[in-house]
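step 3/5: co-fold with NAP
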Amino acid sequence: MSVAVYLPTEEKTRWWVERLAALMPGRDVRSLRQVAAPGSVRYLVVWRPRPGDIAKFANLRAVISIGAGIDHVLADPDLPPGLPIIRTTGRDLTQRMREYVALHVLRHHRDMPRQLQAQRERDWHAIVVPVAPNRVVGVMGLGNLGAAAARTLADLGFATRGWSRRGGAVPGVETFAGAEEFAGFLSGCEILVNLLPLTDATRGILGADLFDRLAPGACVVNCARGAHLVEEDLLAALATGQVRQATLDVFRQEPLPSDDPFWHHPAITVTPHVAAQIDPATGARLIADNIETFDATGTCDDLADAARGY
Ligand code: NAP
Ligand code: GLV
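step 4/5: write tokens
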């Protein structure tokens, strides 16, 4: 059994090859570029594979995404149908996302951008905000990351709502399910966090219609995928004040081009897709374990539902 690895940079690919080889003694682990016999490759470990790369390996048993999302694998138009896709999750990833969401929700809640502006102007300006239980915060997506983020916000005392396809209980969180309950979820929401997977059903969901349904002056935190956001609609909602502030970690084009208006927009905070990057040492251990488990049993906990898209 051999394992091939592809990441967009050679340096990162080399690191993952060395690490996985050390964790999987007896397995032939190499960079996709160095594979001499494509027919021998059973597992392909990837981040943003180039279209057509996966189809070159006729005997693959599974593709492994170095990350929780599988949209970057499903984006390949030549992806062989029915090929199992395994994602990479784990406690480190969840912990990092909880930190990111807590940081940015608290920052919007306490109106830190305006407070910092007051400091720059040497203005002793006390900004009084509602106490957290009087602040409605919504989390879209209640999977591994969304449910953990929503629980964290509820523990901080926020009036926390969560929305998912099927619904389901999250302690301390008022949950909403499906398209029928979406408007109720959004209505009155003052800070909205997006943690949905990118699928045909969720692409462009952060658009004018959604912004109009939020409480006036709401804040938006997008830490899922750039293609969830209709960028022009956000700029328009910021211009009218319907959206007051936004934190964006993900973008349609990454790295964000240097001339993108988001970089210097006074109401937008840009972070470079760092909300929850898997810790490489932990991630490699998880991937090696998932490959061995899948190879032995034909399944593993992180097996995604490729037909569903996440
Ligand atoms: P997950 O465990 O697969 O959970 C997805 C959640 O979204 C589930 O609650 C699901 O509902 C819900 N959902 C899916 N389609 C929906 C729809 N059409 N309407 C309503 N709810 C829908 O995903 P995860 O591990 O939490 O990760 C979420 C996303 O975060 C990833 O896909 C990735 O894009 C992003 N991410 C970003 C970073 C970063 O650093 N910025 C890091 C990691 C991940 P059901 O359970 O009811 O189906
Ligand atoms: C990162 O964006 C991931 O999908 O893990």
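step 5/5: annotate
The chain has nine helices and twelve strands.
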